[in-house]
Amino acid sequence: MLVNEILTIYELLDRPGKPGVDISDLFAKEGQRIKVQKVTEENGSTEFIKIVIEGKKKNGPTLGIIGRLGGIGARPSQIGLVSDGDGALTALSIALKLARMKKRGDGFDST
Question: DSSP character for 74?
Fold first, then answer.
């Protein structure tokens, strides 16, 4: 079940500001590589997150959780996690579950 991971990620996404640093810290504690890239434009900024969870075999098949996700917030006009944030919540929760499984020795055969 992903309940714990969903709640953990939800708490990081449902707050003001960009969650990239907090998410990076969380995955680092789980022993995973993560890259956060912030892109700033005239109307605001967006954080792109890449998490690599290596499998047991270096040359095995890969599993990817990839998506172009909507925004997670609309502050100051609306507070809290917005409905477009469900994709980010899902993808990050699955990645966290996989990271925790691997940390416990239950990694996949993929890279």
Answer: B
Question: What 3-state DSSP class applies to 36?
Answer: strand
Residue that has been written with the tokens 């997150």 in this structure? 49
Using CB atoms within 10 A of its CB, is residue 107 exposed (0-12), middle (13-18) or buried (19+)? Answer: middle
Phi and psi of 37, rounded to 5°? -120, 125
Question: What would the pLDDT profile of 66-108 be if each residue is shown by its tens digit?
Answer: 666 667 777 777 788 887 788 889 999 999 999 999 899 887 7
Question: pLDDT grade, residue 53 (50/70/90)?
Answer: confident
The secondary element (H helix, E strand) that includes residue 47 is strand 44-52
Task: Give the 3-state secondary structure of residue 102.
Answer: helix
CA 4 to chain centre: 14
Strands (DSSP E) contained in the chain are 33-41, 44-52
**Tokens representing residue 30 in the block:** 């789980």
